[in-house]
Amino acid sequence: MSIKILFEMFPIALMFASPIIIAALGGLFSERSGVVNIALEGIMMVGAFSAATVTVLLEESTVLAPWLGLAAGLVAGIVFSLLHAVASVNMRADQTISGTALNILAGGLTVYLCQIIFRQQRTRAFSNGIQKVTVPLLEKIPVLGRMFFIENYPTFFLAIFLVFFTWILVYKTPFGLRLRSCGEHPQAAASMGINVAWMRYFGVMASGALAGLAGGIMVLTADIQYTLVTIHGTGFIALASLVFGKWNPFGVLGAGLFFGFSTALSFYAKDITFLASLPGEFFYALPYVLTIVALVVFAGKSVGPKAAGQIYDSGRR
Amino acid sequence: MTKRREKILLPLLAVLLGFILGSLIVIATGRSPVAMFAAMVKGFSGLDIINDVPWNTRYIGEFVINAMPIILTGLAFAFASRTGLFSIGAEGQLMVGSLAATAVALLVQAPRFIHLPLVLMASILAGALWGAVPGFLKARFNVHEVTVSIMMNYIALHLNNFVILNIFGSQDKVKTAFFPETALLKSPFLQSITRGSRLNWGFIPVILALVVFSFIINKTTFGYSLRAVGYNKDASRYAGMKVNRNIVLSMMIAGAFAGLAGSVITVGTFNFGRAMSAAEGYGFDGIAVALVGGNEASGILFAGMLFGMLKSAQPLMQSQGIPREIAGIIQASIVLFVAMRYGIKMLLERFKKQQAVTADGDRA
Amino acid sequence: MGYIIEMLNITKDFPGIRANDNVTLQVEERSIHALLGENGAGKSTLMSILFGLYKAEQGSIRIRGKEVSIEDPNVATSLGIGMVHQHFKLVQNFTVTENIVLGSEPRKGILLDTRSAEKKVESISKLYGLAVDPRAKIEDISVGMQQRVEILKMLYRDAEILIFDEPTAVLTPQEIHELMQIMRRLVEEGKTIVLITHKLKEIKAVADRCTVLRRGRCVGTVPVASTTEEQMAEMMVGREVNFHVEKGAAAPKDVLLRIRDLDVKNSKGLLGVKKLSLEVRAGEILGLCGIDGNGQTELIQAITGLAKAESGHIFLREKEITNLPIRERLDLGLGHIPEDRHRHGLVLDFNLDENLVLHNYMQRPFASWGVLNKKAIKDNAARLIEEFDVRSGQGAATPARSMSGGNQQKAIVAREIDRSPDVFIVAQPTRGLDVGAIEYIHKRIVAERDKGKAILLASLELDEIMDVSDRIAVIHEGEIVGIVQAAQTDENELGLMMSGSLRKTPKGGQA
């Protein structure tokens, strides 16, 4: 494998990694608050649909359309995730079932609305998604410049920013301490006067915002329109990154980059001699196989939030 | 409410709420809910309640076709559920079942009475093996079966595509060569009485599966120990049951039901193997079916027919100008409402109490 | 001295039961006030009302003479009321400081000010002589230390009134002694303490006054100094209590259970039982006593097959069962009343009849050819309900979950005794039960002994061990440190052995 191919792979890999990282951070907020969120996939679909739709509808009138699209994805993600919050916090629903329902709902709802708005099974194609940028000055840094700062999507920098932001918020502030306590031992949190329901709402809504944003980023960088298969399992890979990254923001960053590269590799495999003989499906399946391996390796060491998935019943203390 | 009544009434209420929500969405987007319900009636009975067209039994055949696989994936989810396991893996188990059926259909040459059972057995076995993986990892390493079975679904998808495209050599990048007649569930008789629908003998294994499910769970000592493990692993171990073995077996039997669904589709509804861009959602339909059916065979039969009806109404809705995806929306809302049933019950009880209080107030 | 807490005429209903019925509690400032009652007498409910977890239907609460309405724990906290719960509410992977400041954290800008938090925790800890390391993680410190963290949580929030809910249940005698000293220290510093307990000795040791509850009603309040334990016991139970178990002398015969050099790992992967040897004979009850967490659970689980033996041997009669599957041990004549009846003893979502065949559902007449015989299962339940006086609302079809703790335990006892095992492992058979059920279960255990069974009785209640056993084996850090005749020992001697400061092996040096 030549160095040239490696450098070429970087923008593609980072493009795939960004939505995985951001959606996984969303999952981190939700699970740290004690709500398992397997609906990341569905929320990403809703975010992607909203972002694509707003971009298509506004791109005639403003060059900011893709960015407004991202904002729309974020907001739509929050609204959609509220269903999960109501079901799992107020209505004592099993969080896995509720998340599954949201995943089914997202597929139906987005294509239904496509049919209503665009009279077809997908959104209209947008002419411009998010544009790649070259960062002045930083591009001159040897090696690193070519990897990160030439012809790259700015959304990757957003992902990096969000990793640090999440780390500070969750691990360095009083708010983060309270959030984590709800995911570890909600009865303890409640006995200290913390409103567990509210914290869990925040966790789920944050996951909605981030996964919605991630969906928007995905459709506006890696696609030309929203279709039923735009997200094709990325939400589940984000979930896998969360497990792989041990529910920690930097772990999530590493896992997201890893999965981003393994996706990019499937495009470049035929140019790389020792990988050329492997079929593309091998690379598609790789993240899922690795996740199972990771789960087995981590088995027994409980690294996730202890109370994630538990219904918190304020009557039972 | 007694427990028994509750178990029937709450899902029915959830179904009702789902249909109401679906109707509201149809109205909000400027379409007619009447047309939607007419499509549903026609979808399972072939009767057109709006237009004056003759009774068309083809729809009944297609309705049964739609209900068959999701009853099986419903049984798959329910069986694991009864052992306290949450398997999202029916999707992948169905796919490897379908793949195994394709392989045996294409590679084996035999008379129908040998070939067809072989095809079905292969799919059952493949589904069971695929289900054994999350079961084994759960039993041996205590790895959560939800995450593993989601991952197994995607692995199955890519495995299926790889084999179909690279080994069975599809010409058009989508499907394999046609299967020989000896491998098919096809029945000219059933087709003729349903005006050329795709109805086939697949319903016989489905009915057998329902009976087997109910018998194992309710009547056998094995079913007793599965239920005991489902409710309380520690007590089951204390009483000398082999908990880990039960977990693996339960996931395998669940996988067998889903695997069978794969062959019912592949050698019943179709007659060739297919590569797919994404899963077709039968596994998730099964979750809906099992939840609404209360994890009981009889309930699953009814819920399977309900969602089968929704599926077969889809093209009819589309032709009425109502996007077919409304069916998925209704189904998802029903699942969401069923998931919220304890919350709904709580709300109902609170409401009743308030009613009682105001009634007292009126009297005073 | 005035009353700091007055709970007047409190009534609280739960569905189907009146938990508190016109209860009045008045607590003097700077005193230790005990709240005594059996399980289910309404002590915890009353204190939960004071702490704002439940709302009373009737009655009023006055704090420092002022009538208050305590809507939730935050109101209680602002009134200076704090509670040390029986089950600690601590986040295991947080530090001591993080647990203490949670909910009212010192800040530096938007960030958590960990350093000043640790300083404050350290200074409070010093003031009351608690000696807690503010930087330690909860999962790494002992149960006694964890309890002090709970106490610190309240002191950090300037609590004046401290409620302790059964605080000694999980502590070693040494830790109990230290806790008593801490309590006295707290009162010296101006705090008021309410102590919820059913242990009379502790009340005698530390409390000033005592209010007794029985079946939700207030029986009376007495000064502790001038009231005997017997008098308080009688108030608690409602009749004269004879704590002594009626039984004749034991007639031990052959050794039925023999344990040789047994090693068992505990949940932390360390050896919880070390080179342990023990014998139990037909026709005797061997009591196993020790401080919680000294290897009792590991020993019992290794005998019954729930835990793996690392090395050593276990024989039932002459047959080695060390590595046999659980089912085979049961078939060889092993019986087991598990210490946690909800976790191990019952499938709570099964009906009573299904629970009563948990071991032998696959044997005739309950099944043939792998198919269940529901009628036989029902008949079996009806017979056992009758014989063991198990009270259940819908007979055989009663969901186990809906039964009272005492009747759940009776059902387990019925199932196990009916199997008629030769070797009977009985763990914590009366935990959380009322006096009537305790007496009944003790009687049945003694009756089994008289039928010639070998019984190993493990209990954390020293009284139970001394009353029911014929011989007593004391376990300390996974080793048997002494075996004594029940009739020839006393609490003092057992206590010394339990803490490891005395070793005593019977003549001949053989266990």
TrEMBL record, chain A:
One Pfam family per UniProt: BPD_transp_2
Compartment(s) of residence: Cell membrane
One Gene Ontology CC term in the entry: plasma membrane
GO molecular function: transmembrane transporter activity
Keywords, comma-separated and alphabetical: Cell membrane, Membrane, Transmembrane, Transmembrane helix
InterPro entries: ABC_transp_permease
Entry's transmembrane regions: 6-28, 35-58, 64-87, 99-118, 153-171, 201-220, 226-245, 252-270, 282-300
Keyword Membrane part of the UniProt annotation: yes
Membrane topology: Multi-pass membrane protein
Extent of the signal sequence: none
Protein name according to UniProt: Branched-chain amino acid transport system / permease component
From TrEMBL, chain B:
Pfam families (alphabetical): BPD_transp_2
Transmembrane helix keyword on record: yes
GO CC term (a single one): plasma membrane
Annotated compartments: Cell membrane
GO MF entry, a single one: transmembrane transporter activity
Keyword Transmembrane included in the entry's annotation: yes
Membrane topology according to the record: Multi-pass membrane protein
Transmembrane feature ranges: 12-39, 59-80, 92-110, 116-137, 199-217, 247-270, 282-306, 326-344
Keywords: Cell membrane, Membrane, Transmembrane, Transmembrane helix
Protein name per the record: ABC transporter permease
Organism for this UniProt entry: bioreactor metagenome
From TrEMBL, chain C:
Recorded GO MF terms: ATP binding; ATP hydrolysis activity
GO terms under cellular component: plasma membrane
Record flagged with keyword Acyltransferase: no
Bilayer-crossing regions: none
Top EC class for this record: hydrolase
Topology in the lipid bilayer: Peripheral membrane protein
Keywords in alphabetical order: ATP-binding, Cell membrane, Hydrolase, Membrane, Nucleotide-binding, Repeat, Translocase, Transport
Location relative to the cell: Cell membrane
Cited SUPFAM superfamilies: P-loop containing nucleoside triphosphate hydrolases
Domain ABC transporter: 5-240, 257-502
Entry EC no(s): 3.6.3.17
Gene3D superfamilies, A to Z: P-loop containing nucleotide triphosphate hydrolases
Annotated CDD domains: ABC_Carb_Monos_I (cd03216), ABC_Carb_Monos_II (cd03215)
Family the UniProt entry places it in: Belongs to the ABC transporter superfamily.
Name this polypeptide is given: Galactose/methyl galactoside import ATP-binding protein MglA
Organism: bioreactor metagenome
Taxonomic lineage: unclassified sequences, metagenomes, ecological metagenomes
Name of the gene: mglA_4
